[in-house]
Amino acid sequence: MPFEPDRDAADFIEMQGIARRDAQALAAFYDHHAPTVFAFLCRMFRDRMEAEDILQETFFQVWREGGKYDPSRGSPVAWLIQIARSRGIDRLRQISLKTKRDGGPIEDWHERLQTEPVAETVLMAEESKAVVDAALSELPPEQREVILRSFFGGQTHHEIARQLEIPLGTIKTRIRLGMEKMQKAIQKRGGCE
To answer: Is 65 helix (H, G, I), strand (E, B) or coil?
Structure first.
């Protein structure tokens, strides 16, 4: 295996390239982080097609807004995950509003819109979920709780801080540290397909 520079340093270099509209930098950033983001989105939606759509929208936003990335506000991965989370929450809200407008509980939405899934697709989604669940289980409880509330519960950082009566900065630090650990654990397991 060829020598690869420290991943954080590579991420910063790739973000600089993306800001300059370097498609190769975006491709490298995508190759390194898409499996992790996709695994989170699979867990968030439990629907492979929705996860794929949000993944595509996330990296399109990274391409469009790469010049807006501010390293003083966190790592490129944290910025990327925040974009994916925000897009995911927006989509969940759209689904919820549509469901309320059209009637019926949101759980029925998946059954109404999905045809019989191909066994391979179901297996791949289950494998992705298992990889994320395993990575989550390796986190310290305080990091796992805030990540579950934020990424899978749709709560804002402010809501979590208020409910847990913990400073906002502590919540953000726990999420960042937890995400970094999860990314390493997911990459160690080979990510998700």
So the answer is: helix
Q: Closest by alpha carbon to 151, among 88, 65, 66?
A: 88
For 147-180, what is each residue's pLDDT tens digit? 888 877 777 888 889 999 999 889 888 888 888 8
Which value, to the nearest 10 degrees, does the dihedral of the CA atoms of residues 69, 47, 34, 185 take?
Answer: 110
Residue 21 DSSP SS3: coil
Q: Which two tokens stand for residue 38?
A: 């996709």
Single pTM value for the model:
0.55
Choose the CATH number for 7-188 among 1.10.1740.10, 3.40.50.150, 1.10.287.70, 1.10.760.10.
1.10.1740.10
What are the tokens at 15?
């973000």
pLDDT on residue 162? 92
